[in-house]
Structures are given as structure tokens and as C-alpha cells.
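hey m, so remember when u said the C-alpha cells were messed up on ur end? i reran from scratch. heres the input so u can diff it against urs
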Amino acid sequence: MAMLSFTKIPSSGLMYRWTIMNAFLLALFAAGYVHGMLDLFIADDTYLTQALVVIFGAILVHATMVALWFRKTWRYVEEFGLYYQTAKGEGRALEARDEIEEMLIRKLSLIEIAGPVLVALGLMGTVLGIRIGFSELGPNIVGDLAASQLALAKFMSGLGTAFNTTLVGITGMVWNMLNLHMLKQEASRLYVSITA
């Protein structure tokens, strides 16, 4: 009976750290939802906050796919290393190193721009929310109680949108930065392992 031989795949613990950190942050949001702390976000009648959450969710899914790609790539470190050593022997070490570095950087490019995009969208929501808030205010509401109440309700709704989108954008950026940091560390480990 032939024995199967398995190559030990080096593990950097990325997926453990990834799962623990993201599960913890998702649990915080779930607890906030259960205790009614996220009702203000759900009540946003412009749907900007919900759109930001959906965009962040897509970014988080993409980042998770990149983390899984890094995990899978560890299986091929020896082949990448062999490619690099062969290129080095042929005098193409810098070219091969640049190719490997570009491959790793390309995987992180969308995640790198996602943080600033989330903040920019959050700030756009802030401006739009304030614009909505001020849209009903004017001299025509003076003396008219019903119009004043309607204008005040619209103003508060606009401010709610402004604060919510800013908070979601900044929270998404910080969360994304934590994930990006882990992925950059993993990319560095892979690069060093391949080019060693």
C-alpha cells in the first residue's frame, strides 16, 4: 500500500487572525443591532447609509477573497521560489522579483483605495444630508406652525443622514485599514519566502 505524502503548507495564521478580528467586529454590530443601536441607520430615508453599508460589505467580501488567495498561494511558494531561482540563474532576478511584487500588489490595489472611497462617500452623504436638512428652511415658514414642524422634521432627517453616512464611512475605512494591514503583512511574508 502506497503512502500519500503531503507537503506541509506554511501557515502564517492569517486566516485565524482574519476570522477572529472580523467575527469580533461583526459581533459588535450584531449586538448593536439587537439592542436597537442601529435603528437610526436603518431609518435613513435617503438610503445613503444603507448604500454605504452594501458597498462596504462588497469590499469586505473582496478582501476576504484576497485573504483566501494568499492562503492558497502559500501552497505554491516552492514553485514561485523555483521560478525566481531559475530567473535569477538566467540573470533576470530583478525582472522576476518585480513580477512577483506586482502580482502581490495588484491583489491589494482595490482594497487600498476602498478606505478613502468610503470616507469620500461618507462625506458626500454629509453634504447631501445637510443640503436636505436646509432645503425646507426659509422665510415662508415663519408664523406657520405646521410648516415649521415639517421643516424641522426634514432638517433633523437631513442631519441624521449626514451623521450616519459620516460614521459609516469612517467606520468602514478603519475596518478596511485593519484588514489591509493584515493583508500587507501577508504579502510581505509571501514575497520574502518566494525571493529568499
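this time it looks ok to me. The helical segments are 14-34, 39-42, 48-73, 77-89, 93-135, 145-195. if urs says something different then somethings off w ur setup not the seq
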